[in-house]
Design goal:
The protein is an all-beta fold. 0% of the residues lie in helices and 51% in strands.
Length: 116
Amino acid sequence: VQLVESGGGLVQPGGSLRLSCAANGFTFNNYGMRWHRQAPGKEREWVAFISRGGQPTNYVDSVKGRFTISRDNAKNTVYLQMNNLKPEDTAVYYCNVVDTLLRNYWGKGTLVTVSS
């Protein structure tokens, strides 16, 4: 299993970014996918989930209405569109999949910095 995140960077408050996670090594459209994040000095937290078919989706309360998770099963890619970014969204964002044996797989993450 390989998960590779991209799309992070420096953005001003109120700005937008779109993260991507390219997956391979497993049958992508058989699994739900998750985004997590870890802010400096804090524990990793779950951010969003998308089921294998694209619906349903779920979000942590702090990002509801601002972030949208989506997937393209033809491209084996999951996305996280982040709008109206806030300084507290600053974190390393990780893509995650859990297999049928409940093993977690993670990418190396992509850094999002929200600052003026």
